[in-house]
Amino acid sequence: MARERVYGQMKGAIIIIFFFITGASAAAFSQTRAAEEDEIKTAFIYNFAKFTEWANDFTAMNICVTGKNPFGRAIHSIEGKAVRGKSIKIKFVRPQEGFENCQVLFISSSESPGIGGIINEARKSNVLTIGDSEGFLEKGVIINMYLSGGEPGARGGRRAGRAGRVRFDINAKAAEDAGLKISSSLLMLARPSTQLKREMPLLIPPH
Amino acid sequence: MKDARGTGDLTELPMEELMEVEVITASKFSQTIERAPSAVTVITAEDIKIYGWRSLSEILNSVRGFYISYDRNYNYLGARGFGMPGDYNTRTLFLIDGRRQNDNIYDFASLEILLDLDLIDRIEVVRGPGSSLYGTNAFFSVVNIISKKGKDLDGVSTAVSAGTHNSNTLRATYGRVFENSTDFMLSASGYNSDGNKRLYYGEFDDPSTNNGIAEDLDREEWKNVFLKLSGRNITLYSNYVKREKEVPTASFGAVFNDPRNSTLDEWGYWGIRYDRGGSNGVFWDVYYYWYDYEGDYVYDTPPIVLNKDISRGRWWGGEARFDGTLSDRHRYVIGVEYQNNLRQDQKNFDPSPYMLYLDDRRTSGSFGIYGLGEIAVSDILLFNLGARYDHYSTFGGVVNPRIALIHNPFEDVTVKLVYGEAFRAPNAYESYYNDSNITQKSNPFLNPETIKTYELILEKRMGNVNLLANVFLYDIRGLITLTTDPEDGLLVFKNTSRARAKGVELGLEGGCLYYMKCNAGYTFTETLDRTQDVSLTNSPKHLVKLNMKAPIRGTHSSSGSDAVFLGAELHYTDRRKTLSGARVKDFILTNVTLSFDGIVEGLNVSAGVYNVFDEKYFDPASEEHTQTAISQEGRTFRLKIDYGF
Q1: CA–CA distance, A34 with B292 (Å, rounded to integer)
Q2: Contact status, residue A53 vs residue B28, Cβ threshold 8 Å
Q3: Contacts of B220 (CB under 8 A, 6+ apart)
Q4: Rounded to whole angstroms, how far apart are CA atoms B201 and B198?
Q5: How many helices (H) and strands (E) does chain B have?
Q6: Beta-carbon count within 10 A of A149 CB
Q7: How do strand B629-631 and strand B618-620 relate by DSSP bridges?
C-alpha cells in the first residue's frame, strides 16, 4: 500500500521535474538557433580576426574582400566593431591592388584560378587569409570555412532534410608562414587535420 | 531569446555556440521536418554513441510516446498507448534506406537486430498514419533507418563490446569512396550472450517444474552482414540477419525448463535502387527478399515431444516514383509499388515420431498506387494532400488518404492540422496458421484493420530549443487480435475490436542548461477498447522520457576528437493492465553512459550502466504465456571499444 503511494508521488514528481526542465530551459538559454549562411560566416570572420595575433603593430583592422562578394549586406554588419582596439573597416580590393593595407583577406571562390598568386602576395603582408572554397586550404589559405552535415530532404516528407553548420579548417603552416599566431582556443575548434601537421606557429620577430 | 535578426546577435556568441548555429535557407519553410505533415523525431549516430544504446528497442524506448515490452523472446514496440501483447511489431513500418523490413508472413521486424547500430547514420521516426504513402504497416508510425556511407567510414572500422551475462559483440567494417565517387561499404558483425542464467517464474513454482527456475535458457545470438555499393545514382544493397533465441518462459504451453524451446529468424535481401534527386527526381527500386523462421517447442502430450514451426517467405517487388516541382512552390509525388509473394509457407510438425499438423503454402500479390501534392497556398500556408490505393489478391482494395494543413503564422512557430487514414493488411500467419486445431485455428476471412487519426501539432523554435505540443485522437476498427474462442478454447485471430484513444504530447528538444542537450517528452494517452468498454491491455497512461547529453570535456561540436561525453536517460512508464486484468506497477528506468573519444586517434571507448537503480519491473505477457507478466532485467553493464583506421 505504502509503495503505491510512493509511486503515485513519484509519478507526480517526475511530471513536475519534466515541466521544470522545460521551463528552466526556455528561460535559461540565450543562443540563437538558425541564421542565414552569410550572417554566420561573417560572424566567423569576425571571430577569426579576434583570435589571431599579428607579429607587427598595425594601425587599423581592415577586413578586405577580393573577388565577387558572396556575403551581400551581411559583411557590413561587423563594420565598426572593435578588434584589438582597432575598429573594423570593410574594403573591397582587386588582387592587382596588393594587400599591404589588409589585416584580414577573404578570398572569394571567383578567385580560385589565381589563388596561388593571391596567397604569395598576402603572405608578404602578414595577412590572415580566409576562404570558403574547396581546396583552398591546400593552396595555402590559412582558414577555410565549409558547411558540414547539411542534406536536402527528399520529396513528400519521406525523408527529412538536415540543416548544415559552418565549420572550418586551419592551415597552421600557412599561418606560421604569414607571421601570424592563432589562438589555441580557435585551433581546438577547427576540424582536426590528418594531412596537415598541427604545429603551433612561431612568432616571427618584427624586423 | 529571439532568433538572429542580424549578425549583431551572432557576433556576441562565443565560438562554441556560434558553431552550433544552423544554416537556414531563405524560404519560410526552412527545414523539411517543418513541412512534414507529422511530428518527426530524428536520432543521430552521435546519439547512439553517447547514450550507449545496445539495440533498436533501446533506441525507440527513448523516443517520446514509445515504449517497449519484452517477453524474453522478442521486443515489442508500443506507441501512443497502443501495444497489444502478441503483436509482432506489425503496426509500425520499419525501413532501412526506404526498403520495407516487415516480412511477408508475420509482418515482423526485429527490434533486436535489423542493422548493426554502428552502421546507422540516423533514424527518422515519423509519427502518425503513413499508409497514404507507404501502404500497409504504417499504422502508428514509420521508422526509417538510414545507413552510413562508405565515405563516412573511410577505411576499416572495428568494434568489440563485453557486457553482463557474457554478452559480446564483434564487428569489422570496411568503407571507402573511390576515385570515381563510387561508394562502397561492407560490414560483418555478431553478437552472443549467455543471457540471464537464472530466471524465476512463480507460475511454475512447483517441484515438478524445477521450482519455477528456468536455468541457462536465455541465450541469444545474432549475425549481420551488410553491403552497399553506390555509383552515380545507382545503389546495390544487400543485408543478411540471423537471430536465435532460447525461450525460457515456456510460451505456447511448452514444457518448462527445457533447453530445446527456441526461435530462429533468418532473412536477407538484395536490391538495386536508382535515385536521381533534384527538383524532378526519378526513383525506382527492385528487390528480392527471403525470410525463414524456425520455432522449436517441446510439449508434454504426454509423452514429451519436440514440435517444430517452420515458415518460409520469398518475395520480390519493386517501386517507381517521380518527384516533381511546379513553379518552385508546389511539389507532387506519384508512385507505384508492387509485391509478389512467391512463397508464404507455414509448416508445423513433430520430427519424431513424425506427425504433420500444418503444411500451408500460399502465393499472393499486391500493388499500390500513390500520389501526394504539396501546395503552397502562400508563403505561410501549405496544404499536403495524399492518397494511396492498395489492392491485395487476398481481400481486395483499400484507399487511404491524408490531408494536412501546415501554417507558419510567425517566423518560429508552425501549426499543423492533420487527418489521416491507415490500414494493416491481415498477414499469412493471422489468416492461415493453425496446428490442426490443437491450440490454434486459422481464419482466412480476415479483413484489414483501419485507423483514422486526427492530430494538431504546435511547434515553436526558441533559439536552439524546439518546443512541441501535440494533441491526437485515433479510432481503430477491425483490430486483428489473438483471442481465445470460448466455444473450443482455441486461439484464433479475429477482427474483433474497436479501439479509440486520445492523448496529449509535450516535447522539448535542444539546449538545456549550459552545454547540456536535452530531449524531454511527456505523453498522456487514454485508450478504450470500445467493444468491451475497458482500457486497453499494456497501455500506459503516462510516459515520460528524459534524455540528457553533456560534454564533460570538449564541446558538442568537437565530438569525434578528444571529447568525453555523458549520456543519461530517465524513463517513466505508468502502470499497465495485463490480460488477467491485474496491473504491472509503474517504474523508472535509468541508464547512464560515458564515452571517451580520441584518447588515441580513431578510438572511442564507452562504458554504460543500464537500469542503474536495479529497478524490478514487469511487462504484461500475451495470450501464449502462462505468466501474467514477465519480469525484466535488473542492472547490467557494457563496455564498448570502437577503433577505426
Answers
A1: 48
A2: no
A3: B112, B167, B191, B192, B193, B195, B243, B244, B245, B246
A4: 10
A5: 8, 36
A6: 12
A7: antiparallel
Q: What distance in Å separates the CA atoms of residue B266 and residue B110, rounded to the nearest whole number?
A: 10
Q: Does A166 touch chain B (CB under 8 A)?
A: yes
Rounded-to-integer distance, Cα B221 and Cα B189, Å: 11
Q: What are phi and psi of B163, to 5 degrees?
A: -150, 180
Q: Which of B9, B12, B15, B146 to mutate to test the interface with A (most CBs of A within 10 A)?
A: B15
Across the interface, of A32, A153, A164, the residue whose CB is closest to B9 is A32
**Three-class secondary structure of residue A78 per DSSP:** helix
- Which positions in chain A touch B38 (Cβ < 8 Å)? 157
**Residue B360: CB atoms within 10 Å:** 18
Which of the residue ranges A195-204, B212-221, B473-482 has the most confident prediction, judged by mean pLDDT? Answer: B212-221
**Is the Cβ of A13 closer than 8 Å to some Cβ of chain B?**
no
DSSP 3-state of B47? helix
Please report, to the nearest 10 degrees, the dihedral formed by the alpha carbons of residues B554, B555, B557, B558 taken in order.
0
Distance (Å, rounded) from C-alpha B604 to C-alpha B217? 33
Burial of B123 (0-12, 13-18, 19+ CB in 10 A): buried
Q: Compute φ and ψ for B342, nearest 5 degrees.
A: -70, -35
CA nearest to B215, candidates B231, B192, B196? B196
Number of Cβ within a 10 Å radius of residue B294:
16
CA distances from B21 to A165, A166, B525, B543 (A): 6, 8, 35, 31
Query: What is the ipTM for the molecules in this complex?
Result: 0.73
Amino acid sitting at position B19: M
Question: In A, which residues are within 8 Å of B42 by CB distance?
Answer: 160, 162
Contact present, B449 and B424 (Cβ < 8 Å): yes
**Window A:94-153, CB contacts with B under 8 Å:** 147, 150, 152-153
pLDDT, tens only, B438-466 = 888 999 999 999 999 999 999 988 767 88
CB neighbour burial string for B338-355, b if at least 16 within 10 angstroms, e if fewer = ebbbbbbbbbbbeeeeee
pLDDT at B153: 82
Q: Which three cell numbers stand for residue B591?
A: 541508464
The grid coordinates of residue B645 equal: 583506421
Rounded alpha-carbon distances, angstroms, from residue B116 to B57, B110, B112, B170: 13, 12, 10, 10
Give the amino acid at B9: D
pLDDT for A5: 54
Distance CA B400, CA B436 (A): 36
Residue A100: which of A132, A62, A141, A52 has the closest Cα? A62
Q: Is A25 on the interface with B (CB under 8 A)?
A: yes
Q: Which residue has the cell 542548461?
A: B513
Helices in B104-167 by DSSP H: which ranges? 131-134, 150-153
Instruction: Note the maximum CA span of chain B.
Output: 83
Residue with cell 525484466: B632
Three-state secondary structure call for residue A149: coil
B421 touches B132 (CB < 8 A): yes
Find where cell 569576425 sits.
Answer: A46
Residue of B36, B98, B463 with shortest CB distance to A32: B463
Cα gap B595→A81, rounded to integer Å: 40
pLDDT in tens, A75-118: 888 888 888 888 999 999 988 888 888 999 999 988 888 898 89
Q: Do A29 and B15 touch (CB under 8 A)?
A: no
SS3 annotation, B48-61:
HHHHCCCCHHHHHH
